[in-house]
Amino acid sequence: MAVTTFIDQGYDETTMERIAELAEVGTSTLYRYFPSKELLLLAPYAEVVDPGRYLRARPVSEPTGVALAGALLDLGDDYADPSRRIPEIRRILDSSPVPRARVWDVLLQSRADLEAALAERMGLPATDHSVQISAGIALDVFYRVDEERKSGDREDYRALFREALASLSTTTIVLPVLP
Fold this sequence. Notes:
- It is a single chain.
- Helix 6 (about 65-80) packs antiparallel against helix 10.
- The mean pLDDT is about 90.
- The chain has 10 helices and no strands.
- The chain is mostly helical.
- The protein has helices at about 1-10, 15-25, 25-35, 35-50, 50-55, 65-80, 85-95, 95-120, 130-150, 155-170.
- The protein has one domain: Tetracycline Repressor, domain 2 (Orthogonal Bundle).
- About 25% of the residues are buried.
- The protein is elongated, with a radius of gyration of 18 Å.
- The N and C termini lie far apart (about 55 Å).
- It is about 75% helix and about 0% strand.
């Protein structure tokens, strides 16, 4: 309901009081769970943009690379689920300075969580470079797919993720190495 109000009325025009009224809860109750308007808007976005959660949900018998690809595809499915309205939330986040600044907090937390989930699967500490670089590549795939979707006419996240993931097997990735 809050997301619909933000989408219909705009971020700046929507008040916490109006959301509380629509939710039929007291304003103080709403503020107890969401201390600010931007946190209320970010909550559904943060829930979906958490690849570590999707990775943990994959079967433990899957090889790590397969599980990571599956996690990104699952994330893409939820991201594109019309009932979640994540692309619409993302448009609001991109156009509103205060919540846009908070997106970085969400993305940093999702990266840390993905590194922790990958570390568990890889049997390495989350601080290991292999874990961190693997997480970075996976997140870059997500960011690139999201940017491609925003700049084009394609809405099918699963197809975009599949194309991006397939390109990794044929792309020459150059890692910086010391001579």
